[in-house]
Amino acid sequence: MGWRSTLGWLAFAGLLGCRPTSARGRIGEVDLTARLPAGVTVPATPDRHEGEVEACGGGEGIPPIPLRIRWTSFEQGGIGYVASCAVDLQESQDGLFVFLGKPKLVEGHDLPVVTLKLTLICLRMDLRGETKRSMTLVYVDPAGRLRTRR
């Protein structure tokens, strides 16, 4: 579901007096095997990684929420690749809807790696029915590192 259709859905829910909330648990997963370059295949036992990032901080005394990210990676021909990734919401907040935008593969500028760029989109509906949108970019590295940018 795109963020525009999600905003429409949230507006409709607001008219009904509902405050949609993302439930704790899986909010998205990505299998990148079909997007790997020709001739690159995922080994039977890729490396497994996990880490935690914070997103969706409201700035007005609203704390950010933790998200757990798990991914697999491997190296082939001297280049590191991310093979799959899953994002789990660790806790929910009333009126906060979190979803995963379209993932993108980003080639390293100075390192032989292909990094996964995730966009975490947070829609927060207040008691008046107004929706605020924020985004957090998460870079998932084949070497097991996570970086965020808001």
Please tell me about this protein's structure:
- The chain is mainly β.
- It is built from one helix and nine strands, in the order αβββββββββ.
- The chain has one helix at about 5-15, and strands at about 25-30, 45-55, 65-75, 80-90, 95-100, 105, 115-125, 130-140, 145-150.
- Strands 1, 2, 3, 4, 5, 6, 7, 8 and 9 form a nine-stranded mixed β-sheet that branches.
- Strand 8 and strand 9 (about 145-150) form a beta hairpin.
- It is elongated and about 55 Å long.
- The two termini are about 20 Å apart.
- Mean pLDDT is about 80; it is low at about 1-15.
The total beta strand count reads: 9
Tally of helical segments? 1
Helix and strand run: HEEEEEEEEE
Report the β-strand fraction as a percent range: over 45%
- Choose one word for the global shape: elongated
- Amino- and carboxy-terminal Cα gap: 22 Å
Tell me roughly what share of residues is in helical segments.
under 10%
Which structural category fits the helices and strands?
mainly beta
Major β-sheet, in short? Answer: 9 strands, mixed
Low-confidence stretches: 1-17
**C-alpha-based Rg, rounded:** 17 Å
Whole-number mean pLDDT: 81
Secondary structure layout plus pairing:
Blueprint: H1 3-15, E1 25-31, E2 47-55, E3 65-76, E4 79-89, E5 96-100, E6 104-107, E7 113-125, E8 131-140, E9 146-149
What distinguishing features does this structure have?
150 residues, mainly beta, 9% helix, 50% strand, elongated, disordered N terminus
